[in-house]
Amino acid sequence: MKVAVVGATGLVGSKMLQVLAERNFPVTELIPVASERSVGKEVVFKGHRYTVRNAADAIAARPALAIFSAGGNTSLELAPKFADAGITVIDNSSAWRMDPTKKLVVPEVNGNILTKDDKIIANPNCSTIQMVVVLKPLHDRYKIKRVVVSTYQSVTGSGLKAVTQLMNERKGVEGEMAYKYPIDLNAIPHIDVFLENGYTKEEMKMVHETKKIMCDDSIKVTATCVRIPTMGGHSESVNIQFENDFDLVEVRELLSRSPGVVVKDDVANFIYPMPLTAYDKDETFVGRIRRDETQANTLNCWIVSDNLRKGAATNAAQIAECLLAKGLL
After folding, report:
1. From the candidates 190, 208, 215, 234, which is the catalytic residue?
2. In terms of CATH architecture, what is 2-123+312-325?
C-alpha cells in the first residue's frame, strides 16, 4: 500500500512516521511530502530512506492514503486535490473538522461512522480527543449534561519553535519566541486566537468538536485552555455533570474496560496520571476520580495523554487501521 505523509518533516509528521512504523501499518511505499524548501531532503522509515517530494508528484503516484500534518491552509488547498484523485485523506489540521460534510473521528468513540464515501476525514483537536475517549463510556451509561474543562497543555502542541523557546529559556539563551511571553516558570491562558466572545479558538474547538464527535448537541461544554512549560502530554481537569447518579466503583470499572483508556487512580500510593508517565504512549490516562461534593450527579477527574501521539499521530493511524479493517482502503 502506498501511503503519503504530507508535512513529513514537521514535528507531528515525524511522529506520524514513528507511529506508523511501530504499529506495523502495511506501508509498501512511503511518499513523504513537504513544502518546496524541503523537497529533495530524506526521511527514514523502517530503516529505508525516502526522498521528500512535492504534492503534485505525490498525487501522480496515486497512493491509497494521504495523512496530512501540514497546517490548515495547506489542507484546504491540497486535500481536495488528493481526494479528487481518489486518494483517501486523513487530515490533522482544523481545516475540515467542523465541515458538516466531513466526518470527525476518534475510532474508540465513533469509528463506526466511516464509509467508502469519506475521502477527507478530519482528525480532532488533541485536547478534545483525549477528553472524549473518557467521556464516551460515561455518557453511554449516565448521560452527560455539562462538562467544565481546564487544560494544561504541553509546549509540543505549538510545534518545534515553542519547544526551542522553552529550552532556550532554560539555558538563558535569547532566541525566537513562539509565544508573546516567556513560557518557562509561567502559565499562559491563551492558546490560538481570541474570538469575539472572549474565548480562544482552542477553547471553542473543544466545545464544538465534543458535540460533533459524541453526536449529541445537548451536551454543554465550557473550556479554559492554558499553555504550561511541560513536554510529554496535555493534562485536563474535567468536571462532568450527569443526568443520572453514578457509583464511583462502577465508574472506575467502566473506564478500565474502555478501549484506549488506562485508569491510574490510587492516591494512597500517589498514583495518578502525569505528562511524564504519558509521554510516548498511545493510551489516555485518567485518575483523581472523585465525586464533586458541591453538586448532585457530578464527577471530577484528571485526564492526561501524549498530544503528539493519541492527540495527533496515533489517532490518525487508528483511523487508517479502521478504514483498512472495513475494507475501505
Report:
1. 234
2. 3-Layer(aba) Sandwich (3.40)
Q: What angle do CA 8, 315, 193 make, to 5 degrees?
A: 75
Name beta bridge partners: 50. Answer: 43
For Cα atoms 226, 231, 237, give the angle at the middle one, nearest 5 degrees.
40
Domain 127-307 classified CATH 3.30.360.10? yes
Q: Which residue has the cell 526522498?
A: 51
Cell numbers that stand for 122 in this block: 478530519
Asked if domains 2-123+312-325 and 127-307 share a fold, the reply is: no
pLDDT in tens, 139-151: 999 999 999 999 9
Residue 48 annotated in active site: no
Q: By the 8 A CB rule, do 305 and 130 touch?
A: yes
Structural domain spans, the chain: 2-123+312-325, 127-307
- Joined together, the cell numbers standing for residue 328 give 475501505
Q: The cell 516567556 sits on which residue?
A: 182
Q: Give the type of residue at 114.
A: L
Please give the pLDDT value at position 34.
94
Considering all CA atoms of the chain, what is the largest pairwise distance in Å, rounded to the nearest integer?
Answer: 60
Statement: the pTM of the whole predicted model exceeds 0.85: yes
**Could you tell me which of 78, 109, 75, 107 has the C-alpha nearest to residue 92?**
75
Q: Is 139 a catalytic residue?
A: no
Below-50 pLDDT ranges, the chain = none
The residue among 71, 57, 73 whose CA lies nearest residue 4 is 57
Give per-residue pLDDT as tens, 23-47. Answer: 999 999 999 999 999 999 999 999 9
DSSP 8-state assignment for residue 163: H
